[in-house]
Amino acid sequence: MFSLPIPTVRRIAFFAFLVVFAPPTAPAGAVVVACLSQCSDSVQIIGCDQRTQGPTTVDAALSASGPWRHVGRLDLSGAPGCSGTLIGPKHVLTAAHCVLDKFNNFRVGPIRFRLAQFSSGPCSRPFGDHYAVRTFVPADYDNGSISTANKALDYAVVELANPIAGAVPMSFSYQSWATVDGLTPYSIGYPGDKSLGTLWQTGPADSNSFLDTPAVWQDGGEKGLFHLTNDGVGGQSGSPVYVFVGGQRELVGVLIGSPESECWAGRIWASRLTPGAVDRIQNAKLFPPNGNVIDFSLRWNTLPNVDVLADVPPANGCGF
Predict the structure, then answer these.
(1) Residues β-bridged to residue 188
(2) Omega of the bond leading into 110 within 30 degrees of 0 (cis)
(3) Does 211 or 15 have the greater pLDDT score?
């Protein structure tokens, strides 16, 4: 739903501070500075902007303890950039509105994915460039509708032409509301108001939360929509929303942005990985020739050979 072209940046015209008295536990004379949310169709910062930059070196980007090695930047021909998460050797989870145009048609290729990219330099792409051969979206998703029922289906699977050697996918799963309620929703991606190719996290660990909403469970678990307090800017569409369950990172949603009015109300949206969503995603991964499953609750587009460019290995001399 974020509509910010990259690298062009659209900002709202104002940013305000509210000064209020501190709580009794603060030092005498201290004040707390609160921030008015920044809300537009492409900038959705709830309260103070507490986003933090991710890795700036390849060692940090590939750290086994961090989330950065699972996420990459998607560049689509003639379209804004998006974020995506590797969920298999050659499958990427992103937002449906990233791969569809305003007429609800699949965007033309080529579609490039740069896993774990952390800046714009040639030595900032430890896995090189990989290109898509096919994209999948839920058949009932309509890129022209912003209803909660429709945006619950705003996820897509991008199939790459080849597996990414040495890459580690992020685990994804359905987690019950009883499990995620009270946990911290984390999200990382490529916001368009920051330096090209840089990865950012949407706030400190204690600053984000899930919010109660009946939209979280729809049609008996066929779809759902999370309400979050995370920040988002154009370019972060498709970013993972993940939690820690039993010490393991689990992808449970896809950041999609929200109508401006929702941002002013203190929430942003993510399509939820319900049982129905997980089934569709798994079936997309098993589409021929990777398996023998054809799921007609999905629609898909196979890119012509001319748009499936040759993979580009990491640059020489970078120590990868």
Answers:
(1) 201
(2) yes
(3) 211
Residue 170: name the closest of 83, 67, 54 by CA: 67
CA dihedral of 59, 63, 66, 68, whole degrees rounded to 10: 60
Q: Where are the domains of the chain?
A: 54-320
Cα distances (angstroms) measured from residue 290 to each of 91, 211, 285: 11, 38, 7
Q: Give CA separation, 94 vs 29, 35, 306, 313, in Å.
A: 47, 30, 23, 23
Q: For residue 27, give every residue at least 6 positions away whose Cβ sits within 8 Å of its Cβ, in sequence order, or none.
A: none
**What is the rounded CA–CA span in Å between residue 140 and residue 131?**
26
Across the chain, what does the average pLDDT equal?
89
Q: Architecture of domain 54-320 in CATH?
A: Beta Barrel (2.40)
Token pair belonging to 284: 């997309």
How many residues are listed for the chain in this entry?
320
Cα end-to-end span (Å), the chain: 35
Mean pLDDT of 204-222: 91
Residues with Cβ within 8 Å of residue 19, at least 6 apart in sequence: 31, 32, 33, 34
pTM above 0.85, yes or no: yes
**Stretch 112-123: mean pLDDT, rounded?**
95
Distance CA 269, CA 258 (A): 5
75-113: b or e for each residue (b if 16 or more CB lie within 10 Å)? Answer: bbeebbbbbbbbbbebbbbbbbbbbbeeeeebbebbbbb
Burial category of 49 from C-beta neighbours within 10 Å (exposed 0-12, middle 13-18, buried 19 and up): middle
Q: Where would I find the H helices in the chain?
A: 58-61, 96-99, 148-151, 177-180, 260-264, 275-285
Q: Which two tokens stand for residue 224?
A: 């759902």
Contact 302, 294 (CB under 8 A): no
Rounded to whole angstroms, how far apart are CA atoms 58 and 118? 8
Rounded-to-integer distance, Cα 214 and Cα 286, Å = 32
CA distance 37 to 44: 7
